[in-house]
Design a protein that fits this description.
Layout: H1 23-28, H2 35-38, E1 43-47, E2 50-53, E3 58-61, H3 64-67, H4 76-87, H5 100-114, E4 122-124, H6 130-145, E5 150-153, H7 162-166, H8 171-175, E6 184-187, H9 201-208, E7 219-222, E8 225-226, E9 232-233, H10 236-248, E10 252-256, E11 280-283, E12 296-299, H11 319-332, H12 337-359, E13 364-369, E14 372-377, H13 381-392, E15 395-396, E16 398-400, E17 406-409, H14 417-435
Parallel strand pairs: 3-15, 5-6, 5-7, 7-10, 10-11
Antiparallel strand pairs: 1-2, 2-3, 4-12, 8-9, 11-12, 13-14, 14-17, 16-17
Length: 436
């Protein structure tokens, strides 16, 4: 397939070349750095679905801050509100003090998100990141039930702090903890055995068996789509059955919507498709709208048993993020236009991947929901090679899955159809090169 022309001007470097990573980063920043190894250039500016390096070369961004930029880079509507707020000396750092920005965010979140969905959640600001939200959720579940055990799922990813790592599946990330990760029991995610098991018979069996060794859990934590785990999609009926089992057994259900929330799969919350109401929901990444640090832990009112200050954090009150979040909610979620457009664009990506699967039968296939889509390579090493070639041709995309076998696409939800087509053409060309 021919690669669509990219607006890279005469300044563009040859594919695969560019200004590289500055020596100060390579010598002074920790070896833990990751993305700059796969994308060896120095980025300078960004707008919408495009990010530009210091040589002027433009890249289509199908990574979008790992899903933190659902409305694109430097969204002009959100930027204007942010600049106005800073210019008038609005509060930047407020811990959990009452501020105008917090008040207006909460009012908007209630009126635009919660009430239309008939959801009654208390809102906790646990800290600035998704893993902060997960830690608060696990801590609250244990406090509310008086139990220690948490059920998580194979190939799950919930964050890099110790509690979140304990319910994460990736062995490399878990090994970094340096201590045993306890009080969590992994169970098979939907379709883990290729449909040969009858869903939750295993769970019911071990819950009832006094010899199973499973302590009665405080909660189950689940992603409706496992992004880092390889774009594994849970069926709505599987999620509904899980919610019903948890309710019947007095086990709290935590849905981790850090990456899949804020419209990534279509609806604002990814669990809406299953018709369920989780007890606790973790939200971060695109909730600020602008890529600013912000996280929420949502929970049913009867679970709000915290003592004042029992769980806190210095940066739990990021007021500029409240400002951009309010505007994002007002702009994109006062009607269902973005939701429908996300579903439509997701279908476009899925159809593109279906075409590749037919062309290269047995070598690649696609899976996903909404605007999180994965192209799965039968030979895992080829996914990284495809991403490398795509980068050389002006596209940012990352890999995921236990063997990095999946090219995971997380483009901005606001991307145009032409931009989406250009990016998909680049990936199709890269796929053709590695499979030929």
């Amino acid at each position: 397939m021919t690669i669509a022309h990219l607006p890279s001007d005469e300044k563009a470097e040859k594919p695969g070349t560019g200004p590289g990573v500055p020596s100060i980063i390579e010598t002074r920043e920790s070896e833990v750095r990751g993305y700059c190894r796969g994308w060896p250039t120095t980025f300078d500016t960004a707008q919408g679905a495009w990010i530009t390096d210091t040589s002027g070369r433009k890249f289509l961004d199908f990574f979008a801050g790992a899903g933190s930029l659902n409305y694109g880079h430097n969204n002009p509507i959100l930027k204007e509100a942010l600049i106005d707020y800073i210019a008038r000396d609005g509060i930047t750092h407020g811990l959990d003090m009452a501020t105008v920005a917090k008040k207006e965010f909460l009012e908007t979140f209630e009126n635009v998100i919660l009430k239309p969905r008939k959801l009654d959640y208390k809102v906790q600001f646990p800290g600035p990141t998704g893993t902060n939200s997960v830690e608060a959720a696990l801590k609250l579940a244990r406090k509310a039930t008086g139990r220690e055990a948490i059920i998580n799922f194979t190939n799950a990813f919930h964050g890099m702090t110790l509690g979140a790592l304990s319910v994460t599946g990736n062995s490399m990330k878990r090994a970094g903890a340096g201590i045993p990760l306890v009080h969590a029991t992994p169970m098979p995610y939907d379709n883990y055995f290729g449909g040969v098991t009858e869903d939750f018979q295993w769970f019911e069996r071990v819950l009832d068996d006094s010899g199973s060794g499973l302590n009665r859990p405080a909660a189950v934590i689940v992603e409706t789509v496992q992004g880092e785990g390889g774009v594994n999609v849970a069926r709505p009926e599987w999620l509904a059955a899980l919610a019903e089992l948890c309710a019947r057994r007095d086990i709290l259900l935590i849905v981790d919507d850090v990456q899949m929330g804020c419209g990534r799969t279509g609806p604002f919350f990814s669990f809406e498709i299953a018709g369920i109401t989780p007890d606790i929901v973790t939200v971060s990444k695109s909730i600020s709208g602008y890529g600013l640090p912000m996280a929420l832990t949502l929970f049913k009112p009867e679970l709000d048993i915290w003592a004042p200050g029992e769980h806190n954090g210095t940066f739990r009150g990021n007021n500029p993020a409240f400002v951009t979040s309010k505007v994002a909610l007002d702009t994109y979620w006062s009607n269902n236009a973005l939701e429908l457009d996300t579903i439509r664009k997701g279908q476009k990506i899925a159809e593109n991947f279906d075409d590749l699967a037919k062309k290269y039968e047995g070598e690649v296939h696609g899976r996903g929901r909404g605007m999180v889509q994965g192209l799965v390579f039968d030979k895992p090493e080829l996914a990284s090679k495809a991403c490398e070639i795509a980068f050389g041709n002006g596209l940012l995309a990352e890999t995921s899955g236990p063997s990095d076998e999946v090219v995971k696409l997380l483009p901005p939800l606001t991307i145009t159809d032409d931009e989406l087509d250009q990016g998909l053409a680049i990936l199709a060309d890269a796929t053709e090169q590695v499979l030929s």
